[in-house]
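Input structure tokens:
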């Protein structure tokens, strides 16, 4: 017997090819894609406008397999965080941030991360593995349809969408898991799937220069670059990857990207670390560094975690730093910290796997669920109060 194919792994062109293999016309692929990504169908039986024979064929050969949700927390400010099982004891996090006029989903692309930035708890857990397309797009699929359920929206394509923006700013370095990331991006943009505009999808990178160029050719979405330092010496000490791709190369790559980008600026993320990178002199050095790159700055107050040995800059310092950039005509925002109470803030996305003392507990919990729910393990949504 051939292995079941997971339709969440396929981009639009691959789904057309798959339908071709089944002897079906290309428009069937569009129908299927709409059922999966716009109506959140979990089974082929629900796809009532497909011929019964096709539905039966699919039932024996394919699945719609999103990763299982291990836990589901909602913060006092409405931020919702899911811990998603990606197998072999690994879990990643997906975070929904509701705002007045938009809902942003922050998704992960790797379990752990090899870049090992000094201020990031994901980095501290090391690299575990790359996520598959189904695991990346499956986070959007799961979150969109969970949110619709909560809101009492039964089903339906456009107009009822809860997630209006996606940011690849969760766990992992997306450009070091390039092909699955790009396939997932294509699905986000496809009109028969999520239909998001390229401006509403942002990929954040620590600066993998050759892959920034590759992204500009394959799927140029909005780009955020984690800068965090105003000179190479400081950046080397915070982001080891800087030794391979120093700031001059990174700035040049950003400029090249702008020729293809959906927005006419790069967003520079800058994590505010007390006494490390937050002086007025650093801000002035930054102004020089980015003078040829149209950009906006997003200052992120550092989210501390045990064993980082780093502290968040004070609010007055962050304000003063942002004023230096603003005075130089650079649009600068200070990121509001969301989801603090459920560890969903930037850089706290380590999953419970990061904390080695809790690994055992988590594994026990998963085993317990598996024995309780057996085959239905993947359908569990545990609401933790
Ligand atoms: N690997 C990618 C995307 C994931 S990290 C990248 O580094 O860009 C998303 C953002 O959170 C990055 O800007 C990252 O630098 C920032 N970040 C990481 N740890 C943080 C922490 N402890 N506090 C605040 N921001 C942090
Ligand atoms: Fe990886 Fe980004 Fe964390 Fe650095 S900040 S360790 S690149 S996830």
């Amino acid at each position: 017997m051939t292995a079941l194919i997971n339709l969440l792994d396929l981009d639009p062109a691959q789904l057309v090819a798959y339908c071709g293999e089944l002897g079906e016309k290309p428009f069937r692929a569009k129908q299927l894609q709409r059922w999966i990504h716009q109506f959140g169908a979990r089974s082929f039986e629900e796809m009532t406008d497909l011929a019964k024979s096709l539905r039966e064929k699919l039932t024996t050969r394919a699945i719609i397999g999103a990763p299982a949700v291990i836990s589901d927390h909602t913060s006092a400010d409405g931020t919702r965080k899911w811990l998603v099982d990606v197998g072999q004891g690994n879990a990643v996090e997906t975070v929904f941030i509701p705002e007045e006029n938009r809902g942003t989903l922050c998704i992960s692309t790797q379990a752990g991360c090899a870049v090992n930035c000094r201020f990031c708890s994901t980095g501290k857990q090391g690299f575990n593995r790359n996520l598959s397309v189904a695991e990346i797009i499956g986070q959007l699929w799961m979150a969109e349809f969970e949110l619709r359920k909560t809101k009492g929206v039964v089903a339906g394509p456009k107009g009822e969408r809860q997630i209006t923006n996606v940011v690849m700013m969760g766990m992992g370095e997306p450009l070091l898991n390039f092909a699955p990331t790009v396939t997932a991006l294509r699905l986000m943009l496809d009109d028969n799937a999520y239909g998001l505009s390229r401006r509403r999808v942002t990929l954040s990178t620590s600066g993998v220069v050759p892959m920034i160029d590759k992204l500009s050719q394959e799927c140029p979405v909005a780009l955020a670059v984690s800068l965090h330092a105003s000179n190479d010496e400081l950046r080397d000490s915070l982001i080891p990857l800087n030794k391979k791709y120093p700031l001059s190369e990174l700035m040049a790559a950003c400029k090249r990207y702008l020729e293809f980008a959906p927005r006419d600026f790069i967003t520079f993320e800058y994590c505010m670390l007390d006494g490390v990178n937050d002086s007025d002199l650093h801000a002035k050095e930054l102004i020089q560094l980015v003078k040829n790159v149209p950009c906006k700055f997003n200052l992120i107050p550092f989210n501390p975690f045990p064993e980082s040995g780093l502290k968040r800059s004070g609010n007055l310092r962050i304000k003063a730093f942002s004023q230096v950039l603003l005075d130089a005509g650079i649009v600068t925002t200070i990121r509001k910290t969301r989801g603090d109470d459920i560890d969903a803030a930037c850089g706290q996305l380590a999953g419970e796997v990061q904390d080695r003392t809790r690994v055992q507990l988590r594994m026990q919990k998963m085993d317990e669920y598996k024995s309780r729910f057996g085959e239905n393990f993947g359908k569990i949504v545990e609401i933790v109060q």
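The pocket of S-adenosyl-L-homocysteine (ligand 1) is lined by residues 119-120, 169, 173, 204-206, 226, 269, 271, 300, 302-303, 346-347 (CB under 6 Å). The longest helix spans residues 133-151.
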